[in-house]
Amino acid sequence: MDDNIDFSVKDRPLCWQHYALVAGTSMLLWTLLTGTLDRQELITGGFVSFLVTALFTSRLAIFTGFRFSWLAPFYIFSYLGIFLIALLRANFDLSVRVLSPSLPIRPKMVEVKTALKSPLAKLMLANTITLTPGTLTVDVIDDRLQVHWVNCPPGSTSQTATQEIVANFEKHIGRFLI
């Protein structure tokens, strides 16, 4: 096991909601991939979802970082909306930079900090940063993320980089993940 990974949430017990989350997500994925609501497909999908959940029980510890509440679906969709807006803005910004004759970029490796605790939350934050054009998460060590930033403002510190890159995503991810 890697010593740099924070497994502090692994001690949290798995409850029936974790199993339901995995089985439900598997069933949703099955339904989306088959593209039908045929009864036989739904029965087969339910069986496969249950089987996958039962077989991979030992791997479900990553889901202990999920916050179960009635508002969790709303928070997830809110995060997806914020991510979509950030994605569109970053795409537009980066395309303007690339098409500009002077290519106004200032690439730099920056270290940002996160208050998120669970490995799942850190994974989601790192992937969100990577999927947003202009930034790329290179490494995650404890509560720090190493990020390659295409346009780092002059004089940026770790705190300003954290505020600029991480803060908004972290706020929304923190509503449904620890």
Summary keywords:
178 residues, 3 strands, single chain, elongated, 5 helices, disordered N terminus, three-stranded antiparallel sheet, mainly alpha
Give your account of this protein's structure.
The protein is mostly helical and 178 residues long. The chain contains five helices and three strands. The protein has helices spanning 16-34, 39-55, 72-99, 119-131, 158-173, and strands at residues 108-113, 135-141, 144-149. Helix 3 packs across helix 5 (158-173). 19% of the residues are buried. The model is unreliable at 1-7 (pLDDT under 50).
Give the topology.
Elements: H1 16-34, H2 39-55, H3 72-99, E1 108-113, H4 119-131, E2 135-141, E3 144-149, H5 158-173
Antiparallel strand pairs: 1-3, 2-3
Helix pairs in contact: 1-2, 3-5, 4-5
Helix fraction, binned, reads: 40-55%
Q: Based on DSSP secondary structure assignment, what is the total number of beta strands?
A: 3
Largest sheet: 3 strands, antiparallel
Form type: elongated
- Content of β-strand: 5-15%
Number of helices: 5
Query: What Rg, in angstroms, do the CA atoms define?
Result: 19 Å
Short account of what is shown:
With 178 residues, the chain is mostly helical.
